[in-house]
Amino acid sequence: MTDSRKKAAAHFAAFLTILIWGTTFISTKVLLVEFTPLEILFFRFILGYIVLWAVYPRFFKMGRIREELLFAGAGLCGVTMYFLLENIALVHTLASNVGIIVSLAPFITAVLAHFLLKEEPLHLQFFIGFIVAILGIVFITLNGSYILKLNPLGDVLAILACLFWGAYSILMRHISKLGYPAVGSTRRVFFYGLIFMLPVLLVFDFRLDLERFAEGSHLLNLLFLGMGASALCFVTWNWSVGVLGAVKTSIYIYLVPVITVAASYLVLHENITGTALLGTFLTLAGLFLSEKKTKKAKKNT
């Protein structure tokens, strides 16, 4: 595969990942009737881990301690801490606050990458695109209600979740350079994420209660979250980070609110207001501006 085709495939993989991640709220909403957020998190990743073993049933030897620390750090940041902090934040602040704050992830990733990854410099147009996209995300998230209340604890937890996702993106960029297969690397990240999750299960309310899986809708939605949103999406996302870089790939996170609005309209038959449409336009414009400059800069290097 030529370099240009590989990059095109990586862009498609990142978009496909965000397309699936943007619709996970529907499955989560169904499961929250019988499952706690922590239970959903654990079950989806344990299922994803099993799927990745089925797809890639091979061991690869443990590398140097530094390499294992990279995998452990990625599991802690991208699996355990990001999702845990985001879920806890939703308990202490408005969902609209979390939706807007989590959308800061591409910006935080870009800043971290600028200082930690020499090959990913920042450019003025990235910041312009970020401002336009965030303005659009605010419009989409508030959707005409204009209710945004500061809740310090929840808002700080959401910001911390973004920091952990940025750290995860940087770690995966380093891991991608080790030469391991994307599926095998993702499986090892899941392993460490689940290990770090175990102490949390003992502290918070967690029930195994496998009888709940007998309900068809519960099983199907968990399969979607485990096989699609976890196993497939983390592999495609991690591979895209390896090809495109942490900054370029993270820019696609701007699309999550846009896809959520579209899914709400198509699946849940929720109304789309003029404010949401304006926000969608601004978000797409911000994505285009951020991505366009990155491409130009790449040509000049």
UniProtKB/TrEMBL annotation:
Belongs to the EamA transporter family. This is DMT family transporter. SUPFAM superfamilies: Multidrug resistance efflux transporter EmrE. Residues 10-141, 153-289 form the EamA domain. It is a multi-pass membrane protein. The chain crosses the membrane at residues 12-32, 38-56, 68-85, 97-117, 124-144, 150-168, 189-208, 220-239, 251-268, 274-290. Coiled coil: none annotated. It is found in: Cell membrane.
